[in-house]
Amino acid sequence: MKIATWNINNVRTRLPLLLAWLEATQPDAVALQELKSTDGQFPRTELEAAGYGSLVVGQKTWNGVALLAKGADPIPVRTSLPGDAKDTQARYVEAAINGVLVTSLYLPNGNPCPGPKFDYKLAWFDRLIAHAAELLRSNHPVALMGDFNVVPTDADIYSPRSWLDNALLQPEPRAAFAHLLQQGWVDALRATSPKDPVYTFWDYRRQRWQRNAGLRIDHILLSKALKKRFVAAGVDREVRGMDDPSDHAPVWATFK
After folding, report:
1. Which member of 52, 92, 131, 147 is catalytic?
2. Are residues 63 and 93 in contact, defined by beta-carbon separation less than 8 angstroms?
3. 159 closest CA partner among 204, 196, 197
4. 236 an active-site residue?
5. Average pLDDT over residues 158-162
6. Among residues 28, 106, 156, 199, which one is catalytic?
7. β-pair type (218-222, 186-187)
8. C-alpha angle with apex 206: 205 to 212, nearest 5 degrees?
9. Given 86, 95, 135, 251, which is the most exposed site by the fewest CB atoms within 10 A?
């Protein structure tokens, strides 16, 4: 089984790229973020023609998350992160696909910080931590994946110097991500490449792709039950170098 997560940065604009990547890599489950699309605008028909069912939580202009399943429809479990009934931002969806519980999450960016957006980021992270603990207690195979908008350590960025004031590198979200790992989640990319630099995002500005000035902010976290079946993980970084790309590359993991 192969699963993947990708911040697509506008699903309608990147649809040709998405379809080409699906055909080339054939993942069984895909988490998409930053759709910038309502449910009605989401290209279900094109994806169905490519062999993928979809579960969408869309939102006009910004945000939006989706899950794709090869040859089937994802079985919905949740379409929002529990803990705040007033939160209307489309940032979380959870479904069963091929016997695995998978998520697509788009954690708030949090900039500028300090400020209300950073406070919202931390509150959202607290809700995720609480829900993640419940998922672990279920003992089901779970893949917690998406754009976490956090660089876990300085080893996950080309150089922290020009990012020191950015919300992605602040101590609080880093501590929250570490808290998730302490619960028992396994960082799939780091388990595969414990020491090598691995990036998933390259900003459009300042020739950062050309200089490989990247960050690792897209993650796949595995529950203990799923870790037993884990084989490998990686980044399809060549997709970032194609015409009109997202600023993120797809992250994938495979299982027995």
Report:
1. 147
2. no
3. 197
4. no
5. 94
6. 106
7. antiparallel
8. 100
9. 86
Residue 34 annotated as part of some ligand binding site: yes
With H, G, I as helix, E, B as strand and everything else as coil, classify residue 219: strand
Q: Does 48 belong to an annotated binding site?
A: no
CATH of the domain at 18: 3.60.10.10
116-153 residue pLDDT tens: 999 999 999 999 999 999 999 999 999 999 999 999 99
Look over the chain and give the mean of its residue pLDDT values, rounded to a whole number.
97
Rg (CA), the chain: 17
Domain that holds residue 67: 2-255
Contact between 3 and 252 under an 8 Å Cβ cutoff? The reply is yes
Q: Which of 84, 227, 57 is nearest to 146 (CA)?
A: 57
* pLDDT at residue number 61: 87
**pLDDT over 90 at 191, yes or no:** yes
172 annotated as ligand-binding: no
For the whole model, what pTM was predicted? 0.98
Q: Is 247 annotated as a binding residue?
A: yes
* Residue 52 designated active-site: no
Do the beta carbons of residue 245 and residue 20 sit within 8 Å? no
Nearest to 29 by CA among 107, 95, 76: 95
Q: Which of 52, 92, 187, 248 is catalytic?
A: 248
Query: Structural domain tally of the chain?
Result: 1
CA distance linking residue 194 with residue 188, whole number of Å = 10
